[in-house]
Amino acid sequence: MCTAVCYKTKSFYFGRTLDNDVSYGEEVVVTPRRFPFSFRHAGQAGEHYAMIGTAFVPDGFPLYYDAVNEKGLCAAGLNFVGSAFYGKGEGDKVGLAQFEFIPYLLGSCASVREAAAALQNITVLDEPYNAGMPPAKLHWLIADRKEAVTLECTGEGMRLYENPVGVLTNEPPFPVQMFRLNDFMGLSPREPKNTFSRKLPLRAYSRGMGALGLPGDLSSSSRFVRAAFAARNAVSGSGEAESVAQFFHILGFVSQPRGCAAAGEGYEVTIYSACCNADAGVYYYSTYEDPAVRAVDMRREDLGGKVLARYPFRRRLTVLRENSVR
Amino acid sequence: MCTAVCYKTKSFYFGRTLDNDVSYGEEVVVTPRRFPFSFRHAGQAGEHYAMIGTAFVPDGFPLYYDAVNEKGLCAAGLNFVGSAFYGKGEGDKVGLAQFEFIPYLLGSCASVREAAAALQNITVLDEPYNAGMPPAKLHWLIADRKEAVTLECTGEGMRLYENPVGVLTNEPPFPVQMFRLNDFMGLSPREPKNTFSRKLPLRAYSRGMGALGLPGDLSSSSRFVRAAFAARNAVSGSGEAESVAQFFHILGFVSQPRGCAAAGEGYEVTIYSACCNADAGVYYYSTYEDPAVRAVDMRREDLGGKVLARYPFRRRLTVLRENSVR
Amino acid sequence: MCTAVCYKTKSFYFGRTLDNDVSYGEEVVVTPRRFPFSFRHAGQAGEHYAMIGTAFVPDGFPLYYDAVNEKGLCAAGLNFVGSAFYGKGEGDKVGLAQFEFIPYLLGSCASVREAAAALQNITVLDEPYNAGMPPAKLHWLIADRKEAVTLECTGEGMRLYENPVGVLTNEPPFPVQMFRLNDFMGLSPREPKNTFSRKLPLRAYSRGMGALGLPGDLSSSSRFVRAAFAARNAVSGSGEAESVAQFFHILGFVSQPRGCAAAGEGYEVTIYSACCNADAGVYYYSTYEDPAVRAVDMRREDLGGKVLARYPFRRRLTVLRENSVR
Amino acid sequence: MCTAVCYKTKSFYFGRTLDNDVSYGEEVVVTPRRFPFSFRHAGQAGEHYAMIGTAFVPDGFPLYYDAVNEKGLCAAGLNFVGSAFYGKGEGDKVGLAQFEFIPYLLGSCASVREAAAALQNITVLDEPYNAGMPPAKLHWLIADRKEAVTLECTGEGMRLYENPVGVLTNEPPFPVQMFRLNDFMGLSPREPKNTFSRKLPLRAYSRGMGALGLPGDLSSSSRFVRAAFAARNAVSGSGEAESVAQFFHILGFVSQPRGCAAAGEGYEVTIYSACCNADAGVYYYSTYEDPAVRAVDMRREDLGGKVLARYPFRRRLTVLRENSVR
Description:
- 4 copies of one chain form a homotetramer.
- Chain A has 326 residues and is α+β, with helices and mostly antiparallel strands.
- Chain A has one domain (2-187, 218-312): Penicillin V Acylase, Chain A.
- The first copy, chain A, is 15% helix and 33% strand.
- The first copy, chain A, has helices at residues 101-108, 112-119, 174-180, 220-232, 240-252, and strands at residues 2-8, 12-20, 27-31, 37-39, 43-45, 51-56, 63-69, 74-79, 94-97, 122-125, 138-143, 148-154, 157-162, 167-168, 262-263, 266-267, 269-277, 282-287, 293-297, 309-312, 319-321.
- An 8-stranded antiparallel sheet of chain A has the order 13-12-11-8-7-6-3-20.
- Chains in contact: A-B, A-C, A-D, B-C, B-D, C-D.
- At the A-B interface, α4, α5, β15, β19 and β21 of A face α4, α5, β15, β19 and β21 of B.
- β21 (319-321) of chain C pairs parallel with β19 (293-297) of chain D, so a sheet runs across the interface.
């Protein structure tokens, strides 16, 4: 499945892992302002905000998994298979196919506040990209440097939730995940105090014991708690290198080694981990095959143009050799 | 603290994390065969096996944290502060200061079997390297491609344990850690079956739920279970790149993001992660600051020589930029 | 707080614990068919089904905590403080004050099916019994020998849920509790198999290890899981004595010893535990102070009458002495 | 298996549960001072302290499971199947068959201090009661109102441990159980404070949440933690009735409902629960079949005599009927 996270130092960082047993050929894709988005029921977006993110581009249209626009608005879609329910269109609301949602939202909104207003008038449709690709069942983390929200479309309609923890995973629905965090309120990065019984000579024999009880498996509900703990307690320098390194450590706390979570005959792994500096428009990523951090800077592209800039993920271990052949 | 792990595909890999709140200037150090080890009570080792590993070299003597010799024998010392107890010397056994232990053992033994035999005649002494450096209280994971053992010196004497799980962390003593794995025997990478009650319509709503109950905090006992689960269920291709990447993912499963485990006023982090191909003598590492994998190949050094080859850890984020300045 | 449970052998048993730090003077109360219930907005119930249960009777009106009627329909109200929301009346629905709910429902319905139909036309009002007694915020377990349902009135309206587990505690709402049972689907009364790793010599060193991971605290969400596990795996003979003893053992699995759950300056304890044979109309109970089982048989009362039969709870330890004074 | 517990209010109480899938016909047995104990290698005890406890009496000799003597010294034997190791006799130590251990110790020692001294000179032998009854593999909780100790005979010899928690269950050995309590030091009967993250609006939605993380299964290691939590946090009035009721609630916290822990084709249940006022010599018990508390008072027997007083356990549900036949 996946985990999405917000983190702020001097800049605002937004990122996610994508966990799956197969990769579909993801790439970093920069969509410049005049790339022609023609939406099925929502008209043509002649000029729009530029954006950068990870997408699968089957035939010219960038199917974004997550992206950040030039105004710093961020969105990531995460699997929500058991609960997502898209409608057939509602009255005079703007109907968007699921795959159009991120381009439309990031193309037209500069902030969460604007997005929330726009969403009043949007409905997500149960409409496939093409015959072979049914709509992905998703919910979304939408954030800027001021706030984060979660959008869910279920049988009970579309709901937008404040997301004070800045984290999203998969099932169950966000309010249930959020409520369950209460069960972990007593965990802490600090050394535990003996409150079990003052009559007993108990002691901390290791650092980290204040978080005993934190779940360690890779299910979506455990990843939610883990990501919340790591992200909301994260400490780093505020420079770019330190912030980015810290972000990848937060993602590492919910990453999936091959062999720990079966998926049919294979295993889920963290296909890619991504972190975008939403202020600067620099998109960093690493892959399961290569932990080295790579970056694409949207401001190095012609953002006024019409053509997608595409950087396929590198999937080979980079080894930086410290000694040369003798 | 730390976690050490064994992993085997086509080659045998041995590695560890070192978790602390400060770094002492670790470097990758290759000790060639004729580097003069003069042991305090164990004489001079004129010629010995060459070795590679991470060491702190205060004034010419490599204080190894972990190392692998040219025969594929591996050893790592891990904190064992509450239980380690070194003696004052015993009868006619060879007395080794704690800091001499790895050089002596890897210098003279070609396998765990040889090491086990040698250990019959060794005692670890409570003798400091110098006035400012009291002996580190450690226990050791010793392994080759055939087997692994744990060595512990406690108030009850020196004990060598078979280590079928190929993992070591810190407190409590190894037999206690090993026994406690029984509590997790029902966990699995597979989807759980409903054994709670056939009368109830329970279902797995996420991959990874078979390991619900796996501890997620960073204490030494939780890391032991986590490392065992990740290492013993790990699946990867058998090539070098895939094996090394997988090894770092296993270590990632017990790595410490800054902020999750307080250490006084600061926080523990995974200072470095290392993985050595014990067959080839190639030592890979990454640091908290930079996830990119670097490598030192001992066979690219003059192993017949007398001089240490030293490669200080690189501690700056490497960013591989995919688009150039426009 | 409280836990309610259904259990079936030859007869159908329905019961609950009530956990609190103070007792209000509960009694077993039999309401005969012609006891005059005058409801505030729902008219007079001249003749109705007789019922037995625990009630507080402040001035003649039995405020039932839980009850069973002569047809075997059972209902228990349990604290639901954070989520319960009663309205002000809705269109032409029958408005019932919360304290009238059990008398009205059990007075007029012979089965869960009838109750479900009646509930279509009922609304629970935010109306106090008197100035000093604001309406208790509750949700209800309603059951007969065929099925069980949960009724919740929240800000989203009144909802009736099938309750396949036959258990209710307190917060969070029932669907959330029910969903979370999925997290425990791999637990079992049976000895665990080693699925952690076939490479490791793990073994069960104690009976009961198949349920490792079962929560053990006294919070409402943990009691839900515990009661579900104990009730749905319970095994007993089908005779009355064995079934009743087993029922009290199930309740014992979620009972609260004084000192384990603070409530302000005091502690929650299981004030009473009750078990009613819903077929026979025999109500069994024990109290915190006395584990001996006492019984009131509604069929030993004049069920055609008008007057409540009241049996205040006995709250002194009964000791059955086996040897007499010498 | 079993759980033994100490509790002190005005009087000192010592008791235990015995969990098994079959009962062997236990009875409360008072051994008066002149009952002739002839030990196999330890001579004849002509006169000794009187004692009361639960025993199986196959042919005249009381095989005590647990007992208290007239001086207030208490001992209980609990299963320790995987680790107990009895020897063949050692030098000039007094050799006792396992089944003689409690009679010998309670017959001759008035306090834990005296018992500890006597144990210096005792060895427990691997000698059966008769051909059909191999020695039970046990360890012991020994206590008086001042202190408690645990005695274990393993492959490493006989060890006596201070037992500050006053609790014993089964495997693993006591020092391991005691060490593991450290993992629960942060649990508390109090409401948890939000230490997860001050940035998040977390709250306690139920009483009892301070103990989230307390294990809830019936394995010996989980029962150890549970009994420690309940016993060391127990609060009760200091009178006899309140203290005894509280003791049974503590035992209830580790009791086994039938169906939760399989034992072969059957299930473990708490065959009996016992609580002895060690000051007064009154032995209280209840059985799985009947929660009513029964009592045998040793001071109502002729303690100067030679004949066992035996009170077979009552195993039928006592129902105290509150209304009589109409």
